[in-house]
């Protein structure tokens, strides 16, 4: 029966997720936030909030007059703005059951609400420290730490000095046994059902319709430009710009010698603060400010806000070289860095490839930023063939991405172990685990075996 129940819950969650509309919070030039569809960039909720976060599970956190609440995709309040802070959390507990909600605060005290705003844990704690898979929540109250369960029943009294004292104290074992009993109880099931019901309720809501698009154009009146609604035959942005031109799905405008962006609905999304905004490639917008260059979009929001010394020409594949501090990288027209900023030179893309040079080596990069040949892989193979500590150390000086660092430490550990440099071998293998290595279980076994051997020698 339980298996069928969990399958049914999973099906409901998937169905609800499919119906939910996740909207993107956008800050406009007037400092207010609104919501657009992340893919189409159409407006659904006009800029009106003092602060906002992207939608998750069909609801978004908004701030109004210093207080935070939740809205649904129609702009209706799910939770009226009454909290000082709200932080979304997503945890998976026993039985693969998800708990999603918000840690909230009022007057410096913290609690938990579900996605519909129902109070689960009242705002009475100094901290809600961490959620544990054992179903316990470490909390701080009146300066002391303890633990509660999902039903806000105190399992470990708040008398400990720190969270670590709660986790490592004598009461912890007993608390875990209580948690084991709790997860089999109807009280636990009811607590989780509360979270699941709130998820189904908010995420099943859909947006009725986006804000209707306006048929707009740029018009000049005297020496100034504005945005004119052709259907309504009226100005929606009064002529106030010295210069303006159409850039695909937005207008680039100039005011007092500086450039910004007004979208096709007449919303000023990027303040006039740049020395220049230009079209690069098919869709990319490049802004220049104080001699530095930055990729932006019509919302002024891009995945990478780095100001570069140079941004090259975007190809039809949507990639270009960039430089910063004398080093080069490859970036997509969506602002994603496809390589580290480490190359000595990257030329413009031609035919889907770009030539690069790095520490005296040369090769080409494809439109995904991958090297041909893979120089580091080739140099690592050479160090592996040499099979000496010095060869690996010399290679790691070149490996500024740290891609093969764990592999180097693993091999150095083996060399030191074979030479009976046990202490050094142990240090190397521990570093291999720290930096990440394939077959980590083998390295862990090597460490365990070596520690035992070292203990036997004492």
Percent strand equals 35-45%
User: What gap, in angstroms, lies between the N and C termini?
Assistant: 57 Å
Q: What would the average pLDDT be, to the nearest integer?
A: 84
- DSSP helical segment count: 9
Lateral arrangement of strands in the main beta sheet: 4-5-6-7
Please provide the count of β strands. 32
Largest sheet geometry:
4 strands, antiparallel
Commentary on this structure:
The chain is an alpha+beta fold and 458 residues long. Among the domains are: 2-203, no CATH class; 375-457, Serine Threonine Protein Phosphatase 5, Tetratricopeptide repeat (Alpha Horseshoe), CATH 1.25.40.10. The chain contains nine helices and 32 strands. It has a four-stranded antiparallel beta sheet, with no helix packed on it. Helix 8 (422-435) packs antiparallel against helix 9 (440-457). The model is unreliable at 1-20 (pLDDT under 50).
Jot down its keywords.
4-stranded antiparallel β-sheet; 458 residues; Serine Threonine Protein Phosphatase 5, Tetratricopeptide repeat; disordered N terminus; 32 strands; alpha+beta; flat
How is the topology of this model organized?
Blueprint: H1 2-19, E1 23-27, E2 33-37, E3 43-49, E4 51-52, E5 59-64, E6 67-72, E7 77-83, E8 85-93, E9 97-106, E10 109-114, E11 119-125, E12 127-131, E13 136-141, E14 144-149, E15 154-160, H2 163-168, H3 171-183, H4 186-203, E16 216-221, E17 224-229, E18 234-241, E19 243-247, E20 250-255, E21 258-263, E22 268-274, E23 276-280, E24 284-289, E25 292-296, E26 310-311, E27 319-324, E28 327-332, E29 345-346, E30 354-358, E31 361-365, E32 371-372, H5 375-386, H6 389-398, H7 405-418, H8 422-435, H9 440-457
Antiparallel strand pairs: 1-2, 2-3, 4-5, 5-6, 6-7, 8-9, 9-10, 10-11, 12-13, 13-14, 14-15, 16-17, 17-18, 19-20, 20-21, 21-22, 23-24, 24-25, 26-27, 27-28, 29-30, 30-31, 31-32
Helix pairs in contact: 1-4, 5-6, 6-7, 7-8, 8-9
